[in-house]
């Protein structure tokens, strides 16, 4: 449906930048609160003023739309800057129940409902993020991982495609953008008896073909010797 292509990138851009801001992935003074007002939320959404990061998010959204038919999970990992294998938080959009076969355009009423669903979902994320303890600035970074179903990558080069700008962009995404990580390794130290992983269910979207679930996970330290910044 065309309105999915219209509103899903808007949602993803807000989703990513809210996590960047509230989890201190980038300094808060590098975000603007005056330009981005989405889904009729009462407050504006923080937007980075870094043009390279804006370009990164735009390209990521293009990649997601290209792979939407095979998309299962969109994972946002918060990990230690010095050890990216040490994940302390995971934010996930689960597209496993999306109806990829629905080719209908959808009515204006449906578009309005999707708009409302996205607003509720973003509001749920904001409410969750605002309750979390602060992380130590500069200590953590992020990793975005897309998990797909029945997708074979790196084969577009075998197709006899015209060398247009659009086709070249799709070719680059086919080779470079997708990344896979074994879900069992999401929290590499989760089996440590001193800590546990807690899951939080957040509001997603449920309307005909546009279905996704949202949840968050984080390590809850059980030992005072573990960094207090994630307690």
From TrEMBL:
Family: Belongs to the MAD2 family.
Organism this protein belongs to: Kluyveromyces dobzhanskii CBS 2104
InterPro entries linked to this entry: HORMA_dom (IPR003511), HORMA_dom_sf (IPR036570), Mad2-like (IPR045091)
SUPFAM superfamilies: The spindle assembly checkpoint protein mad2
Ranges for domain HORMA: 2-216
GO cellular component, one term: zeta DNA polymerase complex
Gene3D superfamilies reported for this sequence: HORMA domain
Superkingdom, natural source: Eukaryota
UniProt name for this protein: WGS project CCBQ000000000 data, contig 00099
């Amino acid at each position: 449906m065309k309105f999915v292509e219209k509103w899903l990138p808007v949602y993803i851009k807000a989703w990513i930048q809210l996590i960047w801001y509230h989890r201190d992935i980038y300094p808060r003074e590098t975000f603007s609160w005056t330009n981005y007002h989405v889904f009729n939320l009462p407050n504006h959404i923080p937007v980075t003023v870094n043009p390279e990061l804006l370009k990164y998010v735009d390209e990521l959204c293009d990649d997601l739309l290209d792979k939407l038919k095979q998309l299962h999970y969109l994972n946002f990992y918060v990990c230690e800057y010095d050890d990216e294998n040490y994940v302390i938080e995971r934010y996930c959009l689960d597209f496993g129940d999306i109806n990829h076969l629905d080719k209908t355009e959808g009515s204006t009423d449906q578009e309005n409902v999707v708009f409302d669903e996205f607003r509720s979902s973003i509001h749920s994320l904001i409410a969750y993020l605002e309750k979390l303890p602060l992380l130590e600035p500069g200590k953590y970074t992020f990793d975005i991982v897309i998990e797909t179903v029945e997708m074979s990558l790196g084969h577009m080069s075998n197709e006899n495609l015209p060398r247009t700008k659009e086709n070249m962009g799709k070719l680059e995404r086919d080779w470079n953008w997708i990344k896979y990580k074994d879900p069992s390794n999401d929290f590499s130290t989760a089996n440590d008896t001193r800590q546990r992983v807690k899951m939080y269910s957040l509001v997603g979207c449920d309307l005909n073909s546009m279905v996704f679930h949202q949840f968050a996970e984080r390590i809850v330290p059980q030992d005072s010797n573990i960094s207090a910044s994630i307690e």
